Amino acid sequence: MDSLINLIVYLVVFGLIWWLVSLLPLPSPVAQVVRVLFIILLILIVLSVFGVLPGGYLPRLTL
Length: 63
Known about the structure:
Layout: H1 2-22, H2 28-49
InterPro entries: THIVI_2564-like
Protein name: Asparagine N-glycosylation enzyme membrane subunit Stt3
Keywords: Membrane, Transmembrane, Transmembrane helix
């Protein structure tokens, strides 16, 4: 249950950061690179929360 709460909190924060970055007036090639990096980061967050990858770089959230 704790990992599910961590995943929800991380995805909400990730969505807010994605939304703020999408508001920036970036040139098209830079925006595509940023979009790919965000997708890779999203995959890493989901895999590390479920224990597929070691997620030592993600802080454990306690509510």
